[in-house]
Amino acid sequence: MTTPNNAATAGEAAIGPFYDAIHATYIASLGDKLDSPSSYEGAVTEHLRMSGVYWSLAGLSLLRDAEEVDRLMGLTSSMGERPAIIDWVFACYDARTGGFGGNCSGTVDSPCPHDGHLLYTLSALQILAMADALDDERLDNDAIVKFVAGLQNEDGSFSGDEWGEVDTRFSYCALSCLALLGRLPLPKWADVEKSEDENAIIDIYKAVDYIISCRNFDGGFGCVPGAESHAGQVFCCIGALSIAHSLHLLNESYENDGNNSNNGGADLLAWWLAERQCDSGGLNGRPEKQADVCYSWWILSALSIMGRVSWINTSKLGQFILNCQDDDDGGIADRPQDMPDVYHTFFGLCGLSLIGHLEKIGDKEGRKYPEVDPVFALPTVLVQRLGLRAQVISEYGGKVEDRLKTHAILNGTTSP
Fold it and tell me: What is the pTM of this model?
């Protein structure tokens, strides 16, 4: 299968304006707006506030250094009457289940947390990682690990919570949570000093086998076996395989040694992802849908992990993201002329980072922007400091992005 042409290589288009200052202000001021009793947005997003805080912190972390993020957001210290974010995070811990909820009623001193869920447990751990608080004495690692492990089903899938919904999103969340806590058992083929553990808390083999079972004839992945391919699920599945050092399963069987990724599985998936690029330059999540900025993350992250970012026109995508900026109030919307929100702001910034546009913008403005890691959705410098090591596939010819060089490298094909 040949590699799709990247039109950007014929001559890079000029990078449009980037509204750094108002984006930072938009993110930093969002908490006060959502906390207002009259805020409609605050009311309808109340149940997923944990993820909203993660999107805010991670987005701002791609624009400012850690100290500035802490100062602007009150990550580790209170701001007026508002408690420090990490104190609020711990108030959302659901001791009954062992996981974190999406929010809590009451106060930090007398909280009533929502039920624990894998989605919000991952967001909570990502926030604590950004706060350098994964060793906080309030964090009950064993209880969280037990919560995560208890949600694995017999077929290797994971439920999101005690109520039993199964989705490949939860497979990614589970493996990422355990990796952040340093408790993820890795399979025997993993290129790491410590791998298989006979007392492993989850069955990693069943976990990756279930993920592979969700792959479709078009190369994509669905939320369960037989479900429609969707770009969001593709990231979750590729990200989970990356964390589990099992990307060779895209192409090979368990019996092979996994030293090369040199046939059609990854290429077929990358082709399906490349076909998600629309005339506008933006990416959609499945055929016949409109482009949406959030897929700048879901698709680019998977392509980056597989060493195939060049399979799309990155110049046109970069301009699409920039066209979705709000040049009055800051933030990035799902598509041009729509209202911005923090979800699309974060994933739009991630997209600009993954295609190198933020780096080019920073070079023009004399600023160095942090990079995002495509596996863990955290700043690369933080991933490296935490010693998180996943697996990625090299580009054709063996090239690997600098941001990925601390991960284990699975050899790609040497020619298209």
Answer: 0.92
